[in-house]
């Protein structure tokens, strides 16, 4: 481990000397970190890679200290050896062309979007980052995006900075234009953050006919397709009477086409016999 420092607020940055990972990881992929050497917690924790420096052979993780695993990671010191598995999962696919891309992030969900901005910015393609947080002190990544030449728009739930309201409201207003402002016309939208936020962004993208990719965050156990613990219901084609099928967020994702995702598994018409949706552990009604 090269560095483990405070980033802002309750967020920290972990920098790892990992030349093989730095040479191969793509924006949207994640790594799975063993937080303890004494099996507590037993399961690895997944984190997006937010910064890659192939020259230095390092990768960066932006993490929020939440529970036991991240509290243990926060105590690591320079020179400690980290047990890291990766790169895992799929990555963001950017449509060909030169049109602008919109990256919509909430909270620590900006991490994979920063990685995407690092990947795309050198091509000169315009990027508009639309970042939301509960309050100004919880905004993440503004300086990093701006340093890459990315245009940044901000929303805060409490109105302490930028647009007063949810980041979905800000996106809708940017797409609408008005008050002397040209409407934003992105070729694609990429989003990561709290699930209700991504559901709202997906709906707005669909209404405007803009392709949207979402990076899903669910609890994971193995991280590489063995335990089935991260199964998430997705639409099974165009047949609205068909039940959902399930995709593994760790290997089929974490990046999905937003139109595929069933945001409320409890409301999905499930193909199972009743009781619980297989693979998700989510109880649901068949009323
Ligand atoms: C593909 C992927 C990428 C991720 N990237 C990042 C990242 O870049 N930075 C970051 O800070 N976090 C990221 N996460 C979430 C991160 O894995 C969890 O915050 C972490 O596992 C919490 O571990 P803990 O032991 O500290 O907390 P725990 O004690 O396990 O949990 C503490 C609290 O966090 C909640 N929680 C646990 N895991 C998740 C999760 N996956 N999603 C939402 N809530 C959770 C629990 O329900 C509980 O309320 C990512 C998750 C996934 C699946
Ligand atoms: S976390 Fe085990 S299959 Fe996805």
Tell me what you see in this structure.
The structure is a single chain. With 287 residues, the chain is an alpha/beta fold. Helices cover 19% and strands 28% of the residues. It has six helices and 16 strands. The strands form four sheets. It has a seven-stranded mixed β-sheet with strand order 11-10-9-8-12-13-16, sandwiched between helices. Strands 1-2-6-5 form a four-stranded antiparallel β-sheet. Strands 4-3-7 form a three-stranded antiparallel β-sheet, with no helix packed on it. The N and C termini lie far apart (52 Å). Residues 268-287 have low confidence and may be disordered.
Name its key features:
6 helices, 3 domains, Rossmann fold, about 20% helix, 7-stranded mixed sheet, binds FE2/S2 (inorganic) cluster, single chain, about 290 residues, binds flavin-adenine dinucleotide, disordered C terminus, Dihydroorotate dehydrogenase B (pyrk subunit), domain 3
Give the strand order, joined by hyphens, for the main sheet: 11-10-9-8-12-13-16
Number of helices: 6
- Bin the helical content: 10-25%
Give the N-to-C terminal Cα separation: 52 Å
Q: Using only CA atoms, what is the Rg? A: 19 Å
Structure ligands: flavin-adenine dinucleotide, FE2/S2 (inorganic) cluster
Tell me about the largest β-sheet.
Answer: 7 strands, mixed
Q: Count the strands?
A: 16
Listing every helix as H and every strand as E from the N terminus to the C terminus, the arrangement reads EEHEEEEHEEHEHEEHEHEEEE
Q: What is the fold named in CATH at topology level of the largest domain? A: Rossmann fold
CATH class of the largest domain: Alpha Beta
Estimate the mean pLDDT confidence. Answer: 89
Shape: globular
Beta content comes to 25-35%
**Count of spatially separate domains:** 3
Secondary-structure arrangement, i.e. CATH architecture of the largest domain: 3-Layer(aba) Sandwich
Please identify the structural class as seen in this structure: alpha/beta
CATH H level of the largest domain: which superfamily? Nucleotide-binding domain of ferredoxin-NADP reductase (FNR) module
Low-confidence stretches: 268-287
């Amino acid at each position: 481990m090269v560095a483990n420092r405070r980033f802002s607020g309750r967020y920290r940055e972990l920098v790892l000397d990992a030349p093989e990972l730095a040479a191969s990881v793509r924006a949207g992929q994640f790594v799975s970190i063993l937080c303890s050497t004494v099996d507590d917690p037993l399961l690895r924790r997944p984190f997006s890679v937010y910064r890659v420096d192939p020259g230095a052979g390092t990768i960066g993780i932006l993490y929020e200290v939440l529970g036991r695993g991240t509290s243990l990671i926060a105590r690591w010191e320079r020179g400690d050896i980290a047990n890291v598995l990766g790169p895992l999962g799929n990555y963001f696919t950017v449509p060909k062309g030169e049109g602008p891309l919109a990256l919509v992030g909430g909270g620590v969900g900006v991490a994979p979007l920063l990685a995407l901005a690092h990947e795309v910015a050198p091509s000169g393609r315009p990027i508009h980052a639309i970042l939301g947080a509960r309050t100004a002190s919880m905004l993440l990544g503004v300086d990093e995006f701006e340093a890459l030449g990315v245009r940044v728009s901000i929303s805060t739930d409490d109105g302490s900075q930028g647009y007063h309201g949810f980041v979905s409201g800000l996106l809708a207003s940017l797409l609408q234009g008005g008050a002397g402002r040209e409407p934003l016309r992105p070729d694609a939208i990429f989003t990561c953050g709290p699930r209700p936020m991504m559901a709202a962004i997906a709906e707005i993208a669909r209404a405007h006919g803009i392709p949207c990719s979402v990076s899903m965050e669910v609890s994971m156990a193995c991280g590489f397709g063995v335990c089935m613990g991260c199964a998430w219901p997705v639409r099974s084609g165009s047949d609205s009477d068909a039940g959902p099928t399930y995709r593994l967020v760790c290997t089929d994702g974490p990046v999905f086409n937003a139109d595929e995702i069933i945001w409320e598994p409890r409301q999905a018409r499930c193909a199972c016999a009743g009781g619980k949706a297989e693979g998700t552990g989510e109880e649901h009604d068949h009323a």
